[in-house]
Amino acid sequence: MKRFIAILAIIFLLSSCAEREFEVRSLTNVGSEGGRFPTLTVTDEGTLLMAWLTPLDGEDGYALKSSEMDESNWSEPVTVFSGSDFFINWADYPSIFQVNGDTLVTHWPYKRGPGSYEYDVYIAVSYDRGVSWSEPIIPHGDGIPAEHGFVSFFRQSSGGVGMVWLDGRNMAPSEHGHGSGEMSLFTTFLSRDLNLGIEMSLDSRICECCPTAAATINGNTIIAYRDRSENEVRNIQIRRFSNGEWEPSFAVNDDGWMIPGCPVNGPELAVNEDKLAIAWFTAPNGEAKVNLAFSEDMGASFSEPIRIDDGIPLGRVDLEWLNRSAVVVSWIEVTGDSAELKLRKVSLKGEVDSPLVVSKIDAGRGSGYPQMVNFQNELIFAWTEPGQWKIIMARLNKNSI
Predict the structure, then answer these.
(1) Do 327 and 345 contact (CB within 8 A), yes or no?
(2) Most confident among 19-33, 60-74, 242-256 (mean pLDDT)
(3) Residue 334 to residue 15: CA distance in whole angstroms
(4) pLDDT of residue 23
């Protein structure tokens, strides 16, 4: 395996009680530059998977790459798929997911028609832990040139993989932007032998372009997404699959955020054995917030929200359990003329620690959705630096939080 992380800088940060050290590095793709919009996943075996996009050398188009890191070395990147019609979007980025053992699945958006948001979901499966990948599979069978994206995967007890996505088949075509009509939330599953299940609509009217989240806890599947009411209130909604059926949806909290357009800010879920946490961005009455809530009944209900931000958040949250009794939440916060990727620890009892600054970060869309994972004894972060187009990674020893 080849190591392809080069040290860029080391940033020292102060908190109210002790000095914390973040190591920040640029990540250079083997044999090419221009990597962007990474996604990270920790496997059951304690390794780290990453997928990202990179432009093709000497020709138009992009490639979706994947790699795996053990303790410190990344494997040689593998091309999952390459082509000229990738839908490149800072918020609707590819993902990689471990179904079980050496079976992995990844997804990416791919253009279908000439309209700005006419694209499909493509899925590929690997049975040899990313060494080779299947031909693309499209999970939605409508065949309509419309938006299909913002996928979240979840495990199924049968050994297959479930998925949810935003589906615009009921929206009117539009050359630029979203057309009129309703964005829906759909689900299906893919069996171990690559057979697709029946598609099902979970919600017929939701926010048009906010990322989704999914988690499995004690055999129950939890889906989180941003809803859209008839009067344009856009709360974070939960749909739960338990005892063999989908239960009615409900709001994590009635934020009362009324907004006549999509804020492109989705929720994040995290599971620790029988405990569940959710973080999300909201802005009722023009007051932007990042909130956190806990569930101790497998997502059937949630605690009152705990505010996490420092006053001017942009959102783009991520969430991880630090241990059995505390989580860490990351988000982007505006600070003066720039922005920072921040981190905060919160206990199950609602105790909120002082924030830590991971790094300065571009406030624009080019930085994408910063990723955070709990890997071995560290928190690992990854995001995109636009302009030069490279992937930046940061790491922090968990014992210093």
Answers:
(1) yes
(2) 242-256
(3) 18
(4) 81
Q: What is the pLDDT of residues 126-155, one digit of tens each?
A: 999 999 999 999 999 999 999 999 999 999
- Give the tokens for residue 43: 């496997």
Cα pseudo-dihedral 208, 125, 365, 224, rounded to 10? 40
- Residues 175-234 have pLDDT tens digits of 556 667 899 999 999 998 899 999 999 999 999 999 999 999 999 999 999 999 999 999
Contact indicator for 342, 331 with CB cutoff of 8 Å: yes
Contacts of 221 (CB under 8 A, 6+ apart): 154, 162, 214, 215, 240, 241, 242
Residue with tokens 């630029």: 176
Helix (H) or strand (E) run with residue 313 in it: strand 313-323
Residue 377 to residue 400: CA distance in whole angstroms: 10
What does the alpha-carbon distance between residue 240 and residue 246 come to, in Å, rounded to a whole number?
A: 6
Long-range contacts, 168-174 (Cβ 8 Å, 24+): 168/117, 168/144, 168/208, 169/140, 169/142, 169/144, 170/204, 171/146, 171/147, 173/115, 173/118, 173/145, 173/146, 174/115, 174/116, 174/117
